[in-house]
Amino acid sequence: METRSNHVLVGAVVLILLAVLALFIVWLARVNSSADKEYDILFKQAVDGIAKGSPVAFSGVPSGQVKEIALFRPDPEFVRVRITVNQDVPILQGTTASIQGIGFTGVSQISLDGAVKDAPPIACPSENASASCPFGVPLIPTRTGGLGAILSSAPQLLERLTTLTERLTGLLSDRNQNSIAAILENTGRLTDALADRGPEIAATLAETRIAIQRAGVAAEQIGQLAGTTNQVLANDVQPAMANLNKAIASAQKSAESLDGAITDARPGLQAFSKQTIPEVGQLVQDLRQMTEALSAVAERVNRGGAGSLVGSQKLPDYEPAN
Fold first, then answer.
1. Cβ distance 115 to 90 under 8 Å?
2. Within 13 Å of residue 250, how many CA atoms lie on the same side as its CB?
3. 61-87 as b/e: b if 16+ CB within 10 A
C-alpha cells in the first residue's frame, strides 16, 4: 500500500509541474506577442517567394516575420499580408513596404523603408477606423520593389523582345541577305577603285588646295579693290553728287520761274486763242482765194498773151463750105 501511494504522489507532483510549465510557456508567448506590433500590407502583385514565417526587414535589419497571407476578399486583385514587427521598430508615416528577393534562391522577404524623422506612427484613426483599418490593424502602403518592377514589366519586355525578334527575322530574310551581300560587294569594289585612284585623288586634293589658296588671294584682292572703290566714291563721287544736287535745285527753281511765267501769260494766250486765231483763219481763206484768182490770170496770159487781159478772146474765122 505504501509503494502504491508513493507512485500516486510522484505522478501528481509530475502532473502539477507539467501544468505549471505549460502555463509559464503560454504566459511567455503572450508576453512576447504583446510586445510585437501587427500591420497589414495589401500588395497589388504576386507575392511569390513569400510564405508564413518569411522574414521582415526594416532598412535591411531583421525586424519581424510574416504571420498570415490571404486574398483580400473585397478586391481579389490584392493580396493581404499580415506581419509582426518588434516593438522598437519605427513604423512611422512615410514608411512603405515592398517585396525583395534574397539571393538567387527564389526566397523573398518583406522590406520596410522610408520612415520620416519626427513623423507620427502609423495607427488606426479613432474616426472611420473600418475604412483605414478593415482588419483591425494599421495598413502600411506599398511601393514597387526591384522584384515587383521586374515582374510588372516582364510582359512588356517579352512583347518588345518578340517584336524585335520578328523585325530581325524580316530584316535577315533571304532577299535582304542577298541585298546586303550585293551592297558589301559593291562597297568592296568601290574601295578597290578608290585604292587604284589614290594618286589621282591625291593630285586632285593638291590642286584643290592650290585653288583654295588662289581663291583666298583673290578674295583679299577683291577686298582691297572694294576699299579702293570706297575711297574713290568718297573722294570723287560725293563732290559730283553735291554738284548734281545743286543742278537739280537750279532746275527746280527754273521750273518754278517758268511755271510763274506761264501763269502770267495765260490771259494773253486765252485772248489769242479767242480773237487772233479766227482772224488768222479768215486771212488764210482770203489768201487762198487771191491765189486762185492769180492762178486764173496767169493761165489766161499763158493762153492768150497780155492782150487777153484787155480785150475779149478773138474768135476764129468762119469759112463756109463749098
1. yes
2. 6
3. eebbbbbebeebeeeeebbbbbbbbee
**Cell numbers placing 125:** 484613426
2-57 confidence digits (pLDDT tens)? 565 666 677 777 788 888 888 877 676 655 554 688 999 998 877 888 889 899 99
- pLDDT digit string, tens, across residues 271-280: 555 666 666 6
The x, y and z cell numbers of residue 174, run together, are: 533571304
The helix (H) or strand (E) run that includes residue 80 is: strand 79-85
Q: Is 40 helix (H, G, I), strand (E, B) or coil?
A: strand
List Cβ neighbours of 44 (8 Å cut-off, separation of 6 or more). Answer: 77, 78, 142
> Are 83 and 142 within 8 A, CB to CB?
no
Q: Are strands 96-102 and 61-71 parallel, antiparallel or unpaired?
A: unpaired
User: Grid coordinates 490771259 are at which residue?
Assistant: 267
CA distance 122 to 114: 12
Could you give the CA distance from residue 48 to residue 148 in angstroms, rounded to a whole number?
A: 10
Query: 84: closest CA among 120, 27, 35, 49?
Result: 35
Burial class (CB in 10 A: 0-12, 13-18, 19+), 58: buried
To the nearest 10°, report the CA torsion of 296, 299, 300, 304. 180
